[in-house]
Amino acid sequence: MFRLVKPETITLSVKLSPPGGPAGEIRITMRYLGRDERVEYQQRIAEENLYDQDIVDDLLVGWAGLADEQGKALDFSDESRRREVLNLEYVWVPLRNAVLQELLGSLALEKN
Prior knowledge:
Blueprint: E1 9-16, E2 24-31, H1 35-48, H2 52-59, E3 60-64, H3 79-86, H4 89-111
Antiparallel strand pairs: 1-2, 2-3
Helix pairs in contact: 1-4
């Protein structure tokens, strides 16, 4: 029998392509939103005029597979380090796109 569960979070793969370096892949963890929650969140985006940064800050809760130049894992909970990482355009754009695609992708499909 299939058991329905509502996860707290979901994990997504994100491909990164640094300029002049080899491409790689990390995993990000974001809060899970059910269909109704997604609709409410989309309304909140419009009503509160939320920017992409606000949405990512709200929904992104972790990452894995991301290390500094010496190979040391980067701790998501270190806010200053997190800001440094997200300030890198080659990290920010695909990460933001993954979060927004997860948030809005299913809503766009439902309208068609």
